[in-house]
């Protein structure tokens, strides 16, 4: 096991040393926030750079590489993380089934959690200001080669190792900002 940079002194997480299917820049590391307005405990997804920042303090963040929603499916905004799950059950949304029935209709009744589940090892569930589930998730993936790409149905995905590191850091009620796309599609 290797520590997440200086994370051993700062937090609970470690990540497994494995062959990287993506560039080194997407490995977890400590980083300065992109804005002085970001506050401790917040999560920020910056889709153009394919990074998720968990604000450890007002001056330091844990940065993870992510995959984000493809063109027309990424939904920027400010949300509240109201639920977390380990090895979550997954069901494609009705919109996913309608868009790609050949791919998703077979899972209309859902899929048990586990290594083949698209939500991966952990999921953080995002809710809107009215308290409604948005069906947006920050979750693991069983396809680590998608980190650094815009291919998902709207969610932000991390490798399973990285989402397991992030999961205990983010508290229920955390503010999550999915920043707008400017350059990527």
In short:
With 185 residues, the protein is mainly beta. It has a single domain (2-178), classed as L,D-transpeptidase catalytic domain-like (Beta Barrel), CATH 2.40.440.10.
Describe the structure.
The chain has 185 residues and is mostly beta strands. It has a single domain, classed as L,D-transpeptidase catalytic domain-like. The chain is built from four helices and 13 strands. The strands form three sheets. A nine-stranded mixed beta sheet has the order 3-6-5-4-13-8-9-10-12, covered by helices on one side. Strands 1-2 form a two-stranded antiparallel ribbon. It has a two-stranded parallel sheet with strand order 7-11. A hairpin with a 5-residue loop joins strand 5 and strand 6. The longest helix has 7 residues. The protein is globular and about 45 Å long. The termini are far apart. The N terminus is likely disordered.
Tell me the structural class. mainly beta
The CATH topology annotation reads as L,D-transpeptidase catalytic domain-like
Detail the poorly predicted runs. Answer: 1-17
Return the CATH architecture: Beta Barrel
Spatial strand sequence of the major β-sheet: 3-6-5-4-13-8-9-10-12
Major beta sheet summary: 9 strands, mixed
Share of helix, binned:
10-25%
Itemize the secondary structure elements and their pairings.
Layout: E1 2-3, H1 7-10, E2 14-15, E3 29-31, E4 43-46, E5 51-55, E6 61-65, E7 68-69, E8 77-86, H2 94-99, H3 101-104, E9 122-127, E10 133-141, E11 150-152, E12 156-159, H4 160-166, E13 174-178
Parallel strand pairs: 4-13, 7-11, 10-12
Antiparallel strand pairs: 1-2, 3-6, 4-5, 5-6, 8-9, 8-13, 9-10
